[in-house]
């Protein structure tokens, strides 16, 4: 079980190439790029994708460079507005979500499932009504997660005082806040990790603060504006912090899973396998929900 | 009515960019490209897409150049095998399809609808059972086409002795053969048009011959290996032939529609709006079926 991801290697698969371009399109769309600017930005994206290194690199490496180029071209973060909106929508749901956790038989597990639900929800696609329906399905404790290491997770929360919590997206971070609050109420010392600079709709310090995390726990950045957590691109300070053996690491989202799956059994990955490539690698269906302990590093 | 497409202008929309790359992927997949060859070909595709001219060009212009580059890189036509297979599958269905037309109340309209059904069917996705189900739905004369100029079409077939029939894909060409046979049985003089060289799964002389068109009607090529019918890229001979005013033109498929929609009311477009962009331009749903007379040129 500790080596469940040892045979898996994330790399760029053929299906990733059109998805890269689709992601560039989304960035342009939410950033309000239109008219003649679309082919101008897209040509630059194609140049970036042509020059990318696809040998032994994850898709996160490629999309990090691509999104950086888009931000440079637009002279702005195209996702800034949408991130604030996602946080705002999720914050409106916060009281009801807190109530669901408080009244559930196993609040910590409920909060963990809620955090996975938060990763499922794409606030760009669903409206708030749909979000609540998705949450209800995720919180149905009679339905199994596709990979469920909840028991190990509960034990580790008991044993480890220190928790390093790698955040994923804005909006979703409000769901993470509820799990962080549960951990803190159990006396855990939580450090939340954000990106040092914007990339896609990933949580930065500003977004985490906007979601109410400031004052609740320590927030650090990983020194990087890359998709996922590409350790060699992170600051030395973060690498040192990440490397401590005496902590539980909670890793949210597919990007962090993609880049950290081989980094050891102290990591618990909470995410949905949103893309077909990752789901196939895992031997699961697209949309599978996981609370999965990592393999030995 | 004669100007139904006058307000429509086909160009490269944002959604087209990821679709270009998806098409390149399909070409590699059916052409058996794998391993390290995938990023090698894809990098070249990105270079091609970066250099493409997106101002006032149709998607067909861009994909024509891209597919030409892929063929050059592979030193082969990746679709050659799949085209022969599509023809073979469709030829097995030929006797049953002929019977359906022969026993229908309006054989010419049934054959036209069958030709549209042939455009609907993607032999790469459906197996032969599904194909027959799709055909049955298309031939249900109680269900309306989304655009139906059948009455005009019948009148024009009565009036015009000469028919220029622009073929689309292999496999589909067997369905076209049945409509061509109906036209010939009414004394029409049909000239079928194929591509001069391979592009995607479009019909070449070899494919048309394989589908049984040789000996049935005259077959000419358009002098081009472009997607659709980009007139300025076609041979002078074909341009002269296409320009004759006294003929009915039957144009099969979305690519031909995209490139010929403004070329006059003597053209009847038989196709399915397979892509969202074209469907949206037409104000129809994706998958809409059309037997549509063109606008004045």
CATH architecture of the domain at 97-293 in chain A: 3-Layer(aba) Sandwich
Average residue-wise pLDDT of chain A: 93
CATH superfamily of the domain at 97-293 in chain A: Uncharacterised protein PF01937, DUF89, domain 3
User: Rough shape of chain A?
Assistant: globular
Structural class of chain A: alpha/beta
| Total helical elements of chain A | 12
First-residue to last-residue Cα separation of chain A: 13 Å
Q: Number of DSSP strands of chain A?
A: 7
CATH class of the domain at 97-293 in chain A: Alpha Beta
Element order of chain A: H for helix, E for strand = HHHHHHEHEHEHEHEHEHE
Q: In CATH terms, what is the fold-level topology of the domain at 97-293 in chain A?
A: Rossmann fold
Radius of gyration of chain A: 18 Å
In what range is the share of β-strand residues of chain A? 5-15%
- The protein's oligomeric status is homodimer
Please explain how this structure is put together.
The structure is a homodimer of 297-residue chains. Chain A is an alpha/beta fold and 297 residues long. Chain A has a domain at 97-293: 3-Layer(aba) Sandwich (Rossmann fold). The first copy, chain A, has helices spanning 16-30, 37-51, 59-74, 80-102, 107-120, 128-139, 150-159, 172-185, 205-210, 236-243, 254-260, 276-282, and strands at residues 147-148, 162-166, 189-194, 218-221, 247-252, 267-272, 289-293. The radius of gyration of chain A is 18 Å and the shape is globular. The two termini of chain A are 13 Å apart. At the A-B interface, helix 1 and helix 2 of A face helix 1 and helix 2 of B. Chains A, B: This is Damage-control phosphatase ARMT1-like metal-binding domain-containing protein. Chains A, B: Residues 13-290 form the Damage-control phosphatase ARMT1-like metal-binding domain.
């Amino acid at each position: 079980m500790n080596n469940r991801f040892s045979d898996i290697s994330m790399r760029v698969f053929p299906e990733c190439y059109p998805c890269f371009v689709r992601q560039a399109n989304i960035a342009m769309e939410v950033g309000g790029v239109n008219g003649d600017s679309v082919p101008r930005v897209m040509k630059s994206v194609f140049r970036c994708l042509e020059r990318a290194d696809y040998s032994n690199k994850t898709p996160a490496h490629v999309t990090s460079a691509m999104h950086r180029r888009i931000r440079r071209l637009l002279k702005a973060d195209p996702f800034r507005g949408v991130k604030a909106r996602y946080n705002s929508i999720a914050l409106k749901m916060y009281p009801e979500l807190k109530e669901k956790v408080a009244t559930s038989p196993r609040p910590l597990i409920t909060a963990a499932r809620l955090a996975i639900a938060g990763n499922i929800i794409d606030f760009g696609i669903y409206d708030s009504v749909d979000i609540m329906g998705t949450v209800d399905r995720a919180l149905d404790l009679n339905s199994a997660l596709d990979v469920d290491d909840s028991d190990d997770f509960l034990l580790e929360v008991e044993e480890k005082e220190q928790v390093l919590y790698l955040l994923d997206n804005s909006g979703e971070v409000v769901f993470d806040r509820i799990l962080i609050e549960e951990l803190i109420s159990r006396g855990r010392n939580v450090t939340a990790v954000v990106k040092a600079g914007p990339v896609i709709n990933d949580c930065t310090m500003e977004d985490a603060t906007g979601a109410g995390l400031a004052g609740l726990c320590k927030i650090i950045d990983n020194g990087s504006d890359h998709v996922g957590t590409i350790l060699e691109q992170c600051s030395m300070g973060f690498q040192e912090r990440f490397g401590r053996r005496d902590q539980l690491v909670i890793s949210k989202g597919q990007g962090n899973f993609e880049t950290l799956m081989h980094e050891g059994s102290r990591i618990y990955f909470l995410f949905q396998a949103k893309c077909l490539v990752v789901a196939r690698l895992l031997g699961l269906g697209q949309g599978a929900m996981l609370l999965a302990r990592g393999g030995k590093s």
